[in-house]
Design goal:
The chain has six helices and 19 strands. It has 387 residues and is α+β, with helices and mostly antiparallel strands. Among the domains are: 177 residues, conserved putative lor/sdh protein from methanococcus maripaludis s2 fold (Beta Barrel), CATH 2.40.420; 67 residues. The strands form three sheets. Strands 9-10-13-12-11-14 form a six-stranded antiparallel β-barrel. A three-stranded antiparallel β-sheet has the order 2-1-3, with no helix packed on it. A hairpin with a 2-residue loop joins strand 16 and strand 17. Helix 3 packs antiparallel against helix 4 and helix 3 crosses helix 5. The longest helix is centred in the N-terminal third of the chain and has 33 residues.
Length: 387
């Protein structure tokens, strides 16, 4: 048994205390290092001068505004939508058929994890005085009845090829009917049936359905493809509609034509067929219309301007002036509170009455910037660059 005197005991106690303090220090240090990984250093910057960054709260030395914390970016998420292959602006969040009766194609798009996070843009804050200075205006998002105006250049038809095809079709129909009435069968009847099918295919390629061709032949309404009567009557007009708009055009819609050759005169009629083939060079589709021609004022091959009003129905709508279209995405700025504006990427549908139909990105009742959004966008981009 070892006996310690008072002096030895004193040294032992000191050694134990040193050991305990050292162990505690190591534990605290390791805990600090571990916690440092979880706690991110917060930086502050000026909303109006994002280039100025500080490690602690304070005032901007340039404009005197309070510095605000800089936010950390988060990755976006995927969303499934369904898009029309023939009419790309026609979008749905559910599978189904487009307005032309074709199946809509599934498409994956990237949207932001939070509405306020858009790649390359950041939320900004400005004072009421600054809002007035740069002329900020906003508008609430509501549902409204939209009407799209489809404008296209066209010409009064002078179509010898179509006239000849319809004439041939008419004559072949008469021959086929006579053969059936005479109870002729065998190879001759089969050849006539094949000829009818070939002519129908040719007409379909020219944008004329079997139903339309039969009606025209029955009513003998295709002589106006070559000339117009001085007494008036009906003329055909061929309008060239762009690929991103033709999905809105339907047979039976009212069409209006005008020409500089007859100033101030409107010629009204109806769409009778929408072509099935796209012109690869002009990216247009031929739309045919029957138009009244009082006094025979419209002449074959005369150029005209056409207009079709399309009722889109009640849609959640956003002003065109609120949308910043980069070509790859459409962005708006939403006023979330007094002086605070956050960017939102939206998916837009058809355009009408200076409004876009909104498919995704904003909600009814929210306010979007309609004026000075380019200045807000510049500040938002600058703020994003400093992160």
């Amino acid at each position: 048994m070892i006996l310690l005197n008072k002096g030895g005991l004193k040294y032992v106690i000191i050694a134990v205390l040193v050991l305990l303090l050292g162990t505690t220090g190591v534990i605290l240090y390791q805990g600090h290092k571990s916690g440092a990984k979880d706690v991110k250093q917060i930086k502050y910057h000026c909303p109006m001068h994002p280039a100025y960054i500080a490690d602690k709260p304070g005032d901007c030395p340039i404009c005197g505004m309070k510095l605000v914390p800089m936010e950390n970016k988060e990755e976006g998420k995927k969303k499934i939508i369904y898009r029309s292959t023939m009419m790309p602006v026609e979008i749905s969040d559910k599978p189904g058929k487009d307005s032309m009766g074709m199946d809509m194609v599934k498409e994956e798009i990237t949207v932001d994890a939070e509405p306020s996070k858009v790649s390359g843009l950041e939320k900004i804050s400005i004072t009421g005085e600054q809002e007035q200075l740069i002329g900020v205006k906003t508008e609430k998002i509501t549902k409204r009845n939209l009407t799209a105006d489809i404008r296209a250049s066209g010409r009064v038809a002078h179509d010898e090829e179509l006239y000849n095809a319809l004439s041939e079709y008419k004559q072949t129909l008469v021959t086929y009917a006579d053969m059936k009435n005479s109870k002729i069968s065998g190879e001759n009847l089969k050849q006539t049936e094949e000829m009818l099918q070939a002519i129908r295919f040719k007409l379909a390629h020219m944008g004329i359905s079997v139903e339309l061709a039969d009606r025209m032949v029955k009513e003998n309404k295709f002589s106006n493809l070559l000339y117009t009567n001085k007494s008036g009557g009906i003329v055909w007009i061929y309008a060239q509609v762009y690929d991103y708009e033709f999905g809105l055009i339907k047979e039976g819609q009212v069409i209006e034509a005008s020409t500089t050759a007859v100033p101030g005169k409107k010629f009204k009629g109806a769409v009778i067929s929408v072509g099935s083939y796209l012109d690869a060079e002009t990216r247009t589709l031929r739309v045919r219309a029957e138009v009244e021609n009082p006094g025979g004022l419209l002449k074959p091959d005369m150029y005209v301007d056409t207009l079709v009003h399309v009722l889109l129905g009640q849609k959640l709508a956003i002003p065109v002036t609120a949308v910043m279209d980069t070509g790859t995405r459409k962005v708006v700025f939403v006023k979330t509170s007094s002086g605070v504006y956050e960017p939102r990427e939206i998916v837009a549908g058809a355009e009408g009455d200076n409004y876009y139909e909104v498919i995704f990105g904003v909600s009814e009742g929210e306010e979007v910037v309609t004026s000075a959004n380019f200045l807000i966008d510049s500040e938002s981009r600058l703020k994003s660059m400093t992160k």
